[in-house]
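Structure tokens please, single chain.
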Amino acid sequence: MIIFSFHSCSWNTVEEPIEYSGGVVLSFDDYNINEWQWADSILNKYNWKATFCVSGFDKLSDNEINKLLQLQQKGHEIASHSLKHLNAVEYVSEHGVQKYLEDEILPSIEGLETAGFSIQSFAYPYGSRNEEIDSALLPHFNILRALAWGKKEPSEHYCYYNNSPLVYAFSLDSNYEYSTIDYLLELLQFARDNDRILILYGHKPIETGPDGYNTKINKLEVICEYVADNRMKFLRLMDL
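Here you go.
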């Protein structure tokens, strides 16, 4: 009797890791929570991630807090933007850095963490900071975000991650005439070509409307498309 034995053969395919070059941090300030959730509903097709820097937490409704929790559950970061959005340098000049911590920083952290948020990053209101304030805040945060102003050659701009806990973000808002889609594409290309991380910030995402502290959704879509098409990474401030 001849016995035929059959063995099934299978090949385990190992997916090649995706090679990324460069990344983008998208951050948004204040408390435009309904607009942030709306933007997420449009941009989630790009698997985007963002950092939402919240001020005025003590004034938020339960519904707004729940929407922020939903954003965190989807992988976005919730960060502190102080309690009352005061100018840090002016406040410290008048009241001292310890008073700034007690009035603006610690209540913001406590309120956010009590509500279920993991707070690792801070965005300075108005970008107002100095070394004394940085030193006082760094024991409470891993990353401090200030602002980068003006249009420069991408290679000379300071809106890229610099391996420091203090980073600078370039504005997406329409009230800055130099914040055009074409210039943002230049900044993105430099990040991609040089494996750098571009840091950006805005306020209220909108579809249309007059220029102001707002970012048009089409501008955000152009950025997200570029990141996706060029194998760049979406990062949060906490990832730096």
